Amino acid sequence: MAKLVIVESPSKATTIQGYLGSGYKVVASKGHIRDLPKSSLGVDIEHHFEPHYINIRGKGDVIKQLKKDAKDADVILLATDPDREGEAISWHLASTLGIPLDKRCRITFNENTKGAIKEAIKAPRAIDEDLVNSQQARRILDRIVGYKLSPFLWKNVKSGLSAGRVQSVATRVIVEREQEIRAFVPQEYWTIQAQFRTPSGETFTADFVGEGDEKIRISDEKQAREIVEAVQGQPATVRQVRKALKYRQPAPPYTTSTLQQDAAKKLGFQSQRTMKVAQELYEGVDVGAEFGGVQGLISYMRTDSLRISQVAQSAALELVGADFGESYLPKTPRVYKAKANAQDAHEAIRPADVRLRPKQIRKYLSPDQYRLYKLIWEHFVASQMAAAAFNTVTVELTCGKYLFHTAGASLKFPGYLAVYEKKSNAGANDDDDDDEYAEGNVPDLTEGDALQLTGVDPEQHFTQAPPRYNEASLIKMLEESGIGRPSTFATIITTIINRSYVKREGKAFVPTPLGEVTTELMKKKFPKIIDYEFTAQMEDKLDSIEQGGCTMEQVLEDFYEDFEKALEAADATVSRDDIDIPPEVSEYPCDKCGSMMVYKNGRFGRFLACPNYPACKNTKAINKDGSPVEKQEQQPEIADFKCELCGGDMVLRHGKYGSFYACVNYPTCKFTKQKTVDTGVKCPKCGARIVTKFGRGKRMFYSCERYPDCDFSSWDMPLPEQCPQCGDILYYKKGKKTVYCKRQGCGYKREEEHATPEL
Description:
By secondary structure, the protein is of the alpha+beta class.
């Protein structure tokens, strides 16, 4: 073997193998092969925070095969993902396989296409140790916080809890929003909408603004009624008409964060689902021979850059010109500026080949893959097109002494909106949720035109509490606050839900009592850990390590000095007696005593329990939405034989030693009979049937149905075939995939290529 290429994912390996051909062997590490141990801290704090890595359990065979392949190869290329995590995986691979760190063995590519792979292979580089150290610093920080804080929470809050550096801050965001909602006091206000008619008979509506040039907020019904009465019968006149041509610009190409937000809003995808599908599109999908077989369909999906390559931009502009016409091209190619702290190592998320239109390859994609690819393709093409143009009109008019306002717009030139299906045009721009240029019906009016008031409608409103965070709004808030990085958002959300600090109600995130109590404790005792600004600054320091601005040890030392003091102070001042976690009360009554059931956490997840335990021990399993699982009455399976003691029916039951038949009159009659399965093999001793049974340790064995009158039994499976040497029955040993004869002196044996299926 000449050249070995190591990637992370088996599916990605398959795609790349197809590009490179027989001169290369492409294999997968299946993610990380080494990590910090689960059973201990794994970080030597006293000796420069030296991490102690071990091989991940279950990866022994993978590592063994990688070493064998590496030994046989003349050239080894590490082609893991082009980010911190991928660089760290390559570093671990190099350490395990004995590759010098200064050797040019590392290749990266932004898109999983044949051209990108072949270009990357021409320019290998050494492993970027700054990038690796940035990942290591994050891993060590999170390990220190988790392993030092978790025992504190076990002792003082609840057994089994765990803490996370960034996850704790994300929980705080949701808790504080819930506190805002509870503290919110609605304020009454009124609006007034009036209907007017022009001299030509056209009608339109306008909203009350104020008196003269002064805006008035209507706070109660009395004030609203006074204004309504004051305008009745009053002349109305157009005071001002402003017409303008306004442009709406397309949104920039997707970053990881904006893709997750849009997929949540437009497709209903949770962030974890979005990243899973995006990974599939990046690694490669078979789109049929007509489109080149297995292809990576999008560029790398973990990025906060808005940059795109010149080649990709030229291809997009060519497509726009061909499909829509020259007028849909911008005057100059668009360049989008990323945020100040954005990492610009990779391009924005875009189609790997914009010529592969979603409809062309729809039949090769799963429904989720198609919907996400379509979202990315349309958004990218739109980002390279001309602005949409709207004719807008704003009208101010007076009625008596009061001022009213109305506005409207009509689409003059669709520009980038042309790429979207008509039904989604209104939401095509991510930044215009209120759609400033929504079309409205405003007649052609001129200043000084006299109007007739035909109706006035006052309406009561109340101010609304801030909404709970959903997938899109939480990700947006985390990004804007610098909490975590876009590539970690999906993991953050999944973690705080799995730890029962937060739950979903519909699409909204709601803190649990446990999440609220833990957050308040963290705010009091570990204010830095849970501080928004401190967490954002820590992300900046991790970025600085990547750029060579500071060292991993400096960042860890600065953090640990204050953290250790806070932990010692908290240990000395907090007691479990000070912590009270109120139960999470459900809306479902106990069907035994009538009390409202509460949510509990057990070995197998959340469930409903009666609050009157131990007087009432009623519990119920729950569905994903928290509602109780309703048990359905099932008719018992009745055997075709009767009880041997009382003649009653025998019904099928299930126990720890397998299925059995029990008398229907239990407990008056306790006769039982184990359920057996006919193997189709005759007993070699008496000729009766051999059936399955269960023995010690719940292990299945094979026995004559006439047992104990006939004592034939075997742990190995008897087969319905005869030994070719002696004619006795053969047996199958599952663990060794061996068929053999038991007769003394025969010795017949053969190996099976595949496991014989269970009876």
